[in-house]
Design goal:
Elements lengths: L4 E2 L2 E4 L3 H13 L3 E5 L5 H5 L15 E2 L2 E2 L11 H15 L3 E3 L3 E6 L5 E5 L2 E5 L1 E4 L6 E2 L13 E4 L14 E4 L3 H12 L4 E4 L9 E2 L2 E2 H7 L35 H6 L3 E3 L2 E5 L2 E4 L3 H26 L21 E3 H4 L3 E4 L3 E2 L5 E2 L21 E3 L16 H25 L1
Parallel strand pairs: 1-9, 2-3, 2-10, 3-6, 7-23, 10-24, 12-21, 13-14, 13-21, 14-17
Antiparallel strand pairs: 4-5, 7-8, 8-9, 11-22, 15-16, 18-19, 19-20
Helix pairs in contact: 1-3, 1-9
Amino acid sequence: MTVSKQIPVIIVGGGQAGLSVSYYLKQRGIEHLVFERRTKMHSWASQRWDSFTLVTPNWQCELPGHPYDGDDPFGFMRREEILDYLQRFADKVQAPIREGVAVEQVSIDDDGGYTVQTSEGNYRCQQVVVASGGYHSPIIPRMAEKLPAQTFQMHSAQYKNPQQLPEGPVLVVGSGQSGAQIAEDLHLAGRQVYLATGNAPRVARQYRGKDVVEWLHEMGYYDISVEDHPLREGVRDNTNHYVTGRDGGREIDLRRFALEGMELFGALEDFEDGELLFRDNLTSNLDQADDTYRNINARIDDYIAKAGIDAPPAEPYTPVWAPQQERTRLKLAEAGIASIIWCIGFKPDFGWLDAPVFNGMGQPKHRRGVSPQPGLYFIGLPWLHTWGSGRFSGVARDAEYLGQKIAEYESAEVADAVSA
């Protein structure tokens, strides 16, 4: 294989994580290149719906050298505002990025370095940072193949607005952050929505005078590392709580949607003989989500009491609706469902990375982004180190740490070369 150029460090991915690492490498004077197969921040521009907002307050946006710089720190940036914020960050970093260049394979050389095969040629480097995130391949179940050809189907990553869809009722599958918010978007647009729920938890937006995120920040939750979390690495498998920043921020209560005409079901299991088949677990899904909601509020209550904080009194949550009888079968044609939106997540795809660092689920093994393979790092993954690792609030801390590790590795390589 012909190698066109030698670069000390190559970063794969030009989103906020990759550019954050570039920021710290530039500070240290470490030569590097960033490869982005599409354009900077591509997923933010292409995989978010029109009414998308952050679900965490703007003050939590702390990219390297680029904290939130708007006039609404306790608000929630809309999609276009997020893109503007990210563009200003990219303009500050001025990363050495090659947009439109796909990394096709990364392999380990005999001397411990790496060969990086790209769509524009081959490179060799001593260190590689994988900043492509963990959400690569949209999950659509095989049962989708059995649905009638005229049923319009899309993944949440493709959804933009209700006008994309054919007229008629819509089935949304999944009630995590994307599913709950897309169901709300369609509901507010006047569409008849059927929602197949999952085991996603929920959280209050405001509680006892503050946004719940602000309380949890004060309580130190966002500084807890994976190693210190009670679930350890298992926390990486948790589904995000559903809540929204829409219209200034509010909680999402699926029970209220049901009162307003949205029809809720348990988890979707199959499609047979023209019927959608659901699990008999709607009640438990709603109850478990509410239990998480109450537990978080109770932890805030304990914190307020122990710290002696003067806060408004608690307002206990009372369910506004409960299913009287769960439907587990729904005839697709009779319901008139014309569209299905799959909101059941993504799976990782690191097939281009030839390195012995993956577990049986295809997830990379690492400790705070440092893999067991020398010179190979990961960033931008959920709970890489803390809750904020995959978000604007914690990626800077992770990037700075990796910048230090990359510098240490480079210094050790130079020292070995000199001693040899």
